[in-house]
User: Fold this.
Amino acid sequence: MTLVQIGPNNPLIDGRQSNRALMVRRGVQVLLNDMRHAVIAEMTLANGRRADLISLTAKGEIWIVEIKTSVDDFRSDRKWPDYRDFCDRLFFATHRDVPAEIFPEECGFLLSDGYGAHLLREAPEHRLAPAARKAVTLQFARLAAQRLLSAEWATGKTFEEG
Assistant:
């Protein structure tokens, strides 16, 4: 089901994402969904940073995926270490035209073609403290519920109506 654009401030597609970034995101979302993760795009964290993708595994582990679409995109954006305080595993995702070797070994690596993605390198685990896990999980749940309600209101139908 696609989330409906309900206004000019839709955080999912707000003009900052290129078509290529949206393509990478779509493929990674397919992979994570196949892995039984619940996935949210564009979630603002407590430190003000915005995660491109954040997912919750069936076991409650929190993953953050930072999407990079070019070498320049990666080199100009050095905020990625700031995400570590909000996840158990941190990944980079890109497409085939970006060399994998530019991405740090201390992060996982996903390669997307827009239809799916491949996990080419596992991310090392750095377990969140219980209080941080609870805070991120609650924020995740509240945001997911808000987006679901907004989509329902935008369509004028309940999801039970189909």
Observations:
- The chain has one domain: 19-155.
- Confidence is low (pLDDT under 50) at residues 1-11.
